[in-house]
Amino acid sequence: MDGGIDVIEFRSVTKRFADGTVAVDGLDLVVESGKITVFVGPSGCGKTTSLRMINRMIEPTEGTITVDGRDVMAGHPADLRRGIGYVIQQAGLFPHKTIRDNIATVPLLLGWSKPKARARAEELMQTVGLGPEMAGRYPAQLSGGQQQRVGVARALAADPPVLLMDEPFSAVDPVVRESLQDELLRLQGELGKTIVFVTHDIDEAVKLGDKVAVFRTGGHLAQYAEPAELLARPADDFVDGFVGRDRGYRTLGFLSDEVPLGTITPVHVGESATGGWTLVVDEEDKPLGWVTGAGPVAEADVLPGGTLHPVASGSLRSALDAALSSPSGQGVAVDDEGRLAGSISADAVLAALAAAREAA
Amino acid sequence: MVWDWIPRNTALIWGALQVHVVLALIPVVAGLVLAVPLGWLASRNGAVRAVFIPAASVLYTIPSLAVFIVLPAILGTQILDPLNVVVALTIYTVALLVRSVADALAAVPALVVAAATAMGYKPGRRFVSVELPLAVPVLIAGLRVAAVSNISLVSVGALIGVGGLGQLFTEGYQRDFPTEIIVGIVLIVLLALVVDGLLVLAGRFITPWARVAA
After folding, report:
1. Which of the residues A57, A88, A146, A165 would you substitute to probe the B interface, choosing the one with the greatest number of B C-beta atoms within 10 Å?
2. Distances (CA, A) of B51 to A14, B37, B67, B139
3. Which residue of B lies nearest to A99 if distances are taken between CA atoms?
4. How does it sit in the membrane (chain B) (predicted)?
5. Which range has the worst mean pLDDT, A223-232, A248-257, A270-279?
6. Interface predicted TM-score of the whole assembly (ipTM), two decimals
7. Where are chain B's structural domains?
């Protein structure tokens, strides 16, 4: 990290298309280095146009954009683009090239030798979690999620400091999307790239962004803030409406957990419960579920429990969700190894929230 | 059918076959070389496309015999010059392939082209390494039609005295000797099947990626 040098800067940038449409109107924005900045907004808000002006896929009508101090309009666009990673919607892989050659694209354009470029490609396949057996396959032989990983690997191949991601996960199903998001956050933890990520999904924006820029129709920047700030204090009614109805609940995701844990006495399978709701754990004290009523506990009687709140990494949101989703009304907190750590009540979460508000 | 006519005339038959192959296939290669840039223009520019595609269709409807006879006047060649046939068939090939090339290039997914641009391909290299390879399956289909059509059209050249297997028709007809005509027909059909098969194989060989889909 280079201590907050402004890597990408938009200065009064306007984009007017030939038909007169103003896609971006007087945008001033500084994308911080080493962070994930998300551009989010409804369709037609100029978020994708803004992204594409960074690598000159679209050229601004007025204003300047600088990447690391250099005007993007200086020099040949191809040279600029080879220094900026790009992940496109639906991966956009080259169907006629193997996975290895897809990933090696930019190194080869930069004039690396074939063996070096291919070795780099195979190294990146490992980085993004693709098995080496896929190197010789074609994109059509991969699932959507795997293709998207190849897309990310291809963007990273020449180790560019800046990565542009244009709705990269919009075409995959929600489960795969979530795992790709987690993977991106893990990768970013290792790589510390300056990432600009475009999405229309506010949940994705809030999950991934260190900072979120909300665009409104007509190419205006409505608010540029950290996600917690955005949820807690939307700048206006547009942002309020866009971030969604349950923003109060989602704000809890940004408050670290200060909830005191209650004690809970669990039983093992085969032991006797004393009546009411009783938590059942396995030999390693990992929660299995709940039983009701008194008497010996058989494995077949165990009802599935709610979500588990990880004490070390959880937020007030995961704590509240654990309490609300538990059949007994008592949330279950676990430690790093998944062993029972204590119980959580919704009241305790609300009390912690009140304390956090007071402190803020 | 006089079977022993065949072994007695292998030199004649073999010579006619060779001329036929050359006259039919040089135009396929020349037509391809011309059709790629023209098709590229048509795929990039709607106005160009609106002129080229109908013009190509009209060209293809002109009877071959008429072209063979008119061309010497335009090219300044002798009426018997094989160049007339080569030029005429090249025109037909271009007429057939321009549309194939334009359609194939237009069918390259916009996202793939955008991705290539964003990776830092300059337009020329992008065309050679991304757009053209992706157009190959459609191009091969166009080439198969052009090659088979040329193989049949070369025989018409015999009417104006240009060699090839068509000579076996004209000669056999003049001498009222059906064996020679049948040999000509069979060889033309076989040649068309072999060339078509070779194009299919070549297409498979250079587009391994197209077979893994679906």
Report:
1. A88
2. 37, 15, 21, 21
3. B209
4. Multi-pass membrane protein
5. A248-257
6. 0.82
7. 5-203
